[in-house]
Amino acid sequence: MKWLVSVGFLVFLSLISLASAQEWPYFITYSHDMEEPDNLELNLGSVAGKPQDGDRFIGSALECEYGVKL
After folding, report:
1. CA-to-CA distance for 23 and 34, rounded, in angstroms?
2. pLDDT at residue 68, rounded to an integer
3. pTM recorded for the entire structure
4. Terminus-to-terminus CA distance in the chain, angstroms?
5. Taking a C-beta distance cutoff of 8 angstroms, is the pair 47, 24 a contact?
6. Strands 57-66 and 40-49, how do they pair?
7. SS3 track for 3-70
């Protein structure tokens, strides 16, 4: 049973490496793309559409950025 858990964990690790985000994570570095320290920025992006040969749709995305001060 332990070997099955180990194999499952290895499969999970190999599959998670295929997942990717839209932007690179920032943990240590600071660049002009990041929020200023101690500031909170909220962005809401919405879209609605009606394709000719498809169903109507709506979508939204909420982006939260906080400038951490170390």
Report:
1. 11
2. 74
3. 0.41
4. 45
5. no
6. antiparallel
7. HHHHHHHHHHHHHHCCCCCCCCCCCCCCCCCCCCECCEEEEEEEEEECCCCCCCEEEEEEEEEEECCC
